[in-house]
């Protein structure tokens, strides 16, 4: 039903702007560019998130809200704490303190698998394809609420036969979309680096996530595939998903992000639209070091 | 040199009671190591739980035979939980360290003098297997001949052209039960590893963080694999104890576990029939080499100053090790494995 609705709204607008991006840009249009700024409809709302490794404070984010249905980029220089923050939000690491609500549910006490079940699915900087399993099995393992994943039910094929067939159908559709359909019976370890990125994204979609967290989706991807990955990420927004991604490549951020959050030394230093961020003195300072101009003189 | 004898002895071992014990324990370990990637280096301890659970239950606690079996299985579950709860959330190597240590703790506890009242100390225990052999349907007094098979006073002889196999009626009973158990667990694991449950285990072996990111409770799956593999190990322990009608602490040394790894790698890890084929080959090779060398010395084919009878044992282990090295060079995936899997680029 929602598909047809979207199709209609897309047709009604004579311009080429798809509905998802239009909605996301509209929701963020009047949001001031300052760190921790409230959003119209945040899917993720985090407060006071702190993680220290011994004496080193890796993450100390006072407040961050992520707009639903938008693509938000999380940028910052190396060691800014982006990936650590990512790991905290997805339950792969535990904060010293901090709380956050994901889609109406407290998520800071959840374990990683519970976060995924709640609808927030992540990918990894170093792609984690299950190499000695086929591409199809990689996809099928992603499906949620599988009856046959219970020990006793797994023994009784008739109990999960239908669900498995439905999951297989769904996987085929996704593999078709991500141009991996011809590879479905190959081992995932036989795929190229870029194809593994595609597989990881497709696999994440098997869970029907509401929010997709991409940790450096463009790292190690050749330019030809980059464009297709970008299109896939844009498609996620058109399907109503929220995307938060960590990235270094400012060109890419410019091309697809609706909103940018900048971290430096563990803190959120500013937020804004890509254009606002590019012009922001603090961002340039964070990347190049605060004293770069002093050194020039 | 009596090749017929050597060959017959090797084949007798390759399908006999001891091979079945190793095959069963390896089936359990294959679920843990082959499918789930759990480095359990203490499968000997799980077998010891079965063997001692049964022996202590029947001899010390005076329980009926089946209660002893139950006690053995329960002990294996308790051991799996004890080992798994602290280590399965940690990196894979922690389980390896903890299990290898636990196996030694179990063995040394069993042979401790202070506990010999309950465990029999280093002498072990006997007197628990009568109920098992009371169920033996193979008569101890029977004499008949049928084609190449003959029964002589409870001793079965199978006499083909190249070999003859001989088993006592007690061996036959142990083998019948053993092969039924092997078949049962192969069917069970065959169903499991082809199910979505088994797919999650394989995923954990490949990358547990990826599986976690897909909403699976990795800890629970690893625990299930550890418990089920351990239970199968305990069943192997029952068969070990019953086939010898005694338990000895030193049969559960770490070598036992290492042989299981040899068997799994030989047969092919994460292959359903790998452990059975591996166990049969391992015991064929082992007894072929030791019987062959012994025969060679006895018949004078191997001069006395080259090799003495007391040196045969160590040399056999050396040769078994050598053949493992050759296997890993020329067929690293094992007999049933898929070479393609090993050439994959694991990034």
Number of extended strands of chain B: 6
CATH fold-level assignment of the largest domain in chain A: Rossmann fold
The biggest beta sheet of chain A is recorded as:
6 strands, mixed
The geometry of chain A reads as: globular
Question: How would you sum up this structure, described in words?
Answer:
The complex is a heterodimer of chains A (297) and B (347). Chain A is α/β, with parallel strands linked by helices and 297 residues long. Chain A folds into two domains: 212 residues, 3-Layer(aba) Sandwich (Rossmann fold); 61 residues, no CATH class. Chain A contains 13 helices and ten strands. In chain A, the strands form two sheets. Chain A has a six-stranded mixed β-sheet with strand order 6-7-8-3-9-10, sandwiched between helices. A four-stranded antiparallel β-sheet of chain A has the order 2-1-4-5. The N terminus of chain A is likely disordered. Chain B has 347 residues and is of the alpha+beta class. Chain B has one domain: ABC transporter involved in vitamin B12 uptake, BtuC, CATH 1.10.3470. Chain B contains 15 helices and six strands. In chain B, strands 2-3-4-5 form a four-stranded antiparallel β-sheet. Chain B has a two-stranded antiparallel sheet with strand order 1-6. In chain B, a hairpin with a 2-residue loop joins strand 2 and strand 3. In chain B, helix 12 crosses helix 13. The longest helix of chain B has 27 residues. Chains A and B meet through helix 4, helix 6, helix 7 and helix 8 of A and helix 8, helix 9 and helix 10 of B.
């Amino acid at each position: 039903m929602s598909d047809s609705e979207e199709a209609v709204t897309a047709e009604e607008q004579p311009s080429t702007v798809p509905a998802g991006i239009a909605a996301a840009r509209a929701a963020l249009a009047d949001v001031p560019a300052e760190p921790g700024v409230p959003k119209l409809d945040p899917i993720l709302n985090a407060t006071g998130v702190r993680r220290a490794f011994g004496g080193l404070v890796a993450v100390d984010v006072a407040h961050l809200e992520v707009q639903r249905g938008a693509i938000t980029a999380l940028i910052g220089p190396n060691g800014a704490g982006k990936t650590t923050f990512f790991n905290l939000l997805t339950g792969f690491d535990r904060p010293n303190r901090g709380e956050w609500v994901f889609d109406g549910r407290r998520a800071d006490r959840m374990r990683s698998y519970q976060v995924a079940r709640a609808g927030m699915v992540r990918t990894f900087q170093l792609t984690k394809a299950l190499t000695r399993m086929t591409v199809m099995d990689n996809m099928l393992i992603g499906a949620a609420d599988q009856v046959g994943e219970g020990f006793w039910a797994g023994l009784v094929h008739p109990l999960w036969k239908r669900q498995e067939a439905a999951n297989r159908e769904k996987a085929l559709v996704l593999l078709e979309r991500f141009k991996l359909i011809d590879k479905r019976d190959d081992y995932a370890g036989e795929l190229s680096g870029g194809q593994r990125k595609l597989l990881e994204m497709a696999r994440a979609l098997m869970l029907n996530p509401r929010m997709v967290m991409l940790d450096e989706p463009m790292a190690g991807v050749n330019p030809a595939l980059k464009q297709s990955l970008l299109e896939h990420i844009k498609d996620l927004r058109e399907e109503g998903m929220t995307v938060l991604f960590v990235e270094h490549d400012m060109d890419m951020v410019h091309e697809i992000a609706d909103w940018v959050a900048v971290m430096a030394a563990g803190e959120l230093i500013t937020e804004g639209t890509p254009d606002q961020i590019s012009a922001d003195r603090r961002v340039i300072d964070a990347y190049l070091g605060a004293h770069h101009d002093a050194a020039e003189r | 040199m009596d090749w017929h004898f050597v060959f017959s002895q090797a084949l007798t071992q390759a399908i006999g009671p001891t091979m079945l014990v190793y095959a069963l324990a390896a089936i359990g370990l294959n679920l843990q190591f082959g499918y789930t990637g759990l480095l359990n280096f203490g499968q000997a301890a799980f077998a010891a739980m079965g063997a001692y659970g049964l022996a202590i239950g029947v001899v010390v606690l005076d329980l009926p035979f089946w209660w002893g079996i139950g006690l053995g299985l329960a002990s294996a579950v308790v051991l799996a939980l004890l080992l798994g709860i602290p280590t399965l959330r940690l990196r894979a190597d922690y389980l390896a360290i903890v299990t290898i240590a636990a196996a030694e703790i179990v063995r040394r506890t069993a042979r401790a003098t202070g506990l010999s009242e309950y465990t029999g100390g280093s002498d072990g225990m006997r007197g628990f297997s009568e109920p098992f052999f009371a169920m033996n349907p193979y008569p101890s007094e029977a004499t008949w001949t049928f084609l190449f098979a003959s029964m002589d006073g409870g001793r079965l002889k199978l006499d083909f052209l190249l070999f003859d196999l001989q088993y006592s009626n007690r061996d036959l009973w142990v083998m019948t039960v053993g092969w039924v158990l092997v078949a049962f667990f192969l069917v069970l694991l065959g169903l499991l590893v082809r199910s979505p449950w088994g797919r999650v285990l394989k995923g954990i072996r490949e990358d547990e963080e990826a599986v976690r990111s897909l909403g699976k409770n990795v800890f629970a799956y690893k625990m299930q694999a550890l418990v089920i593999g351990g239970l199968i190990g305990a069943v192997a322990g029952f068969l070990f104890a019953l086939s010898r009608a005694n338990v000895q602490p030193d049969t559960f040394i770490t070598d036992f576990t290492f042989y299981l790894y040899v068997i799994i790698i030989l047969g092919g890890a994460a292959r359903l029939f790998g452990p059975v084929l591996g166990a049969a080959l391992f015991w064929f090779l082992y007894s072929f080499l030791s019987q062959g060398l012994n025969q060679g010395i006895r018949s004078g084919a191997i001069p006395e100053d080259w090799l003495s009878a007391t040196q045969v044992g160590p040399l056999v282990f050396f040769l078994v090790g050598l053949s493992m090295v050759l296997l890993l060079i020329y067929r690293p995936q094992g007999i049933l494995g898929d070479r393609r899997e090993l050439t994959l680029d694991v990034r």
